[in-house]
Design goal:
Helix content: 40-55%
Shape: globular
Largest sheet: 5 strands, mixed
Order of helices and strands: HHHEEEHEHHEHHHHH
InterPro entries: DUF4371
Number of helices: 11
Number of strands: 5
Pfam families: DUF4371
Distance between the termini: 46 Å
Protein name: DUF4371 domain-containing protein
Strand order of the largest sheet: 3-2-1-4-5
Structural class: alpha/beta
Radius of gyration: 23 Å
Strand content: 15-25%
Domain DUF4371: 29-143
Length: 246
């Protein structure tokens, strides 16, 4: 767990480095301390549930995607009013990832319904639901949105604003010629190397910092990363392309 967190947290990353270099004997990687960390996380979840119950009404935000092992997982976030202090505010709390074996509308709904029951949250107290623009989630006739509204008509649906904005930019890029050509070239450079292990090795031999990335078709902001690799390593990538052409 600590090693996984080190991939995202520079403080923990430095801690792992010190352990690897034998600069400290206090590493917190033993079985007992990891069990204690898990217990602390469980206690934090319990406190969040208490706050949600105190607020009574809540909304759910869901998104699902396959993980590195190709297991579908759905993230569950609860939005509620935190009344635990004098500074009353709206809070969004991440409660965990839910394993999804059935990605049909009924399968996704069953996973959500079971999790709410396990958390002892009353589905009748739900006042909102937010998803991306996937038809099996937002579908107003057969989606998860519709199934929840059939049970609780007060659980109003709101589309994910970020996802909608992303789709707007993606459609814009397809319709306007200059960005279409620009990102088309970036994608062709990526596929030139990615389609062959030999060519990819040539690329790795020439660049030492940022690797090439495919231009995502769904998440506009991720295209920044695909542009960075070429912007900051233009000469190195040109050299790699020349070597591939020989």
């Amino acid at each position: 767990m600590v090693e996984t967190l080190a991939e995202f947290d520079p403080v923990i990353q430095e801690h792992v480095r010190r352990i690897t270099n034998d600069e400290t004997q206090v590493h917190y990687l033993g079985a007992s301390i990891q069990n204690e960390l898990i217990q602390l996380l469980a206690c934090a979840i319990v406190e969040i549930i208490k706050k949600i119950k105190r607020a009574k009404y809540f909304s759910v935000i869901l998104d699902y995607t396959p993980d590195a092992s190709h297991q579908e997982q759905m993230s569950l976030i609860i939005r509620y009013v935190d009344l635990s202090s004098s500074n009353i505010c709206i809070v969004e709390s991440f409660l965990g990832f839910l394993d999804v074996n059935d990605t049909t509308v009924q399968g996704l709904f069953d996973v959500l319904e079971k999790e709410l029951k396990d958390l002892h949250l009353d589905i009748d107290d739900k006042r909102g639901q937010g998803y991306d623009n996937g038809s099996n989630m937002k579908g107003k006739h057969q989606g998860v949105q519709k199934k929840l509204l059939d049970i609780n008509p007060k659980a109003f649906y709101s589309a994910c604003g970020c996802h909608s904005l992303n789709l707007t930019f993606v459609i814009y890029q397809r319709l306007v010629i200059k960005p279409k050509i620009f990102f088309g070239i970036i994608q062709r450079i990526y596929t030139t190397f990615a389609n062959s292990t030999k060519k990819w090795q040539i690329l790795k031999d020439n660049i030492t910092r940022l690797t090439l990335k495919s231009a995502s078709t769904a998440r506009w902001e991720s295209r920044v990363e695909s542009v960075k690799a070429i912007r900051f390593q233009c000469l190195e990538i040109c050299e790699a392309l020349l070597q591939v052409s020989k």
